[in-house]
Amino acid sequence: MKTKFRVVDLAYMAICASLIAICSWISIPATIPFTLQTFAVFCALELLGGKRGTVSICIFILLGAVGMPVFTGFNGGFGVLLGTTGGYIVGFIFIGIIYWLAQKLFGEKLLVRISAMVIGLLVCYAFGTAWFLWVYARRAGAIAVGTALSWCVLPFVLPDLGKMALAVLLAGRVKKFLQ
Which structural domain range is residue 146 located in? Predict the structure, then answer.
């Protein structure tokens, strides 16, 4: 059975896609920039649920792919997705799909939602790091997996877990106003 989105659903998904874009502009430059994108991804999933949250993530990525400057540093275009950090951006979709699947299979319990976000984040890290290794090797030469992890994952683990906790707390307070 097909489900249609209501107008209010479309508005919320657009707002969350915009929130992800705005949070991508708030960054600290590094090999892989520190941004608030993951915070906004977690917020979208917590506020809208797996299905609508994942659609919001896809809208954000599609806007960037067609050239809207929604990525870090006000960048846009398909070239960003094909760059070294593109795998992490695409990996956001995996966070959403895993969250959506866990929600569908195991329900709305807090432990399920947090576990799904953690597992999704690990998959995002794995996909993004594999992508980074491949693109980096083509541009500058091969590097060790440990080096890529030390550049691209390890500095982000604790901040991303903190962003996840903040998103869960904030969404819990805001969600009651969206019903």
Answer: 7-178
Contact 110, 85 (CB under 8 A): no
Q: Is 30 helix (H, G, I), strand (E, B) or coil?
A: coil
Domain of 91, CATH number, reads 1.10.1760.20
Q: What is the mean pLDDT of each run of 10 residues along the chain (179 residues)?
A: 84 98 90 88 98 98 98 95 96 98 97 98 98 96 95 95 98 88
Task: Please provide residue 27's backbone torsions phi and psi, each rounded to the nearest 5 degrees.
Answer: -145, 160
Angle at 23 between CA 18 and CA 27, to 5 degrees: 150
Distance from C-alpha of 102 to C-alpha of 114, rounded to nearest angstrom: 10
pTM comes to 0.94
Question: SS3 for 161?
Answer: helix
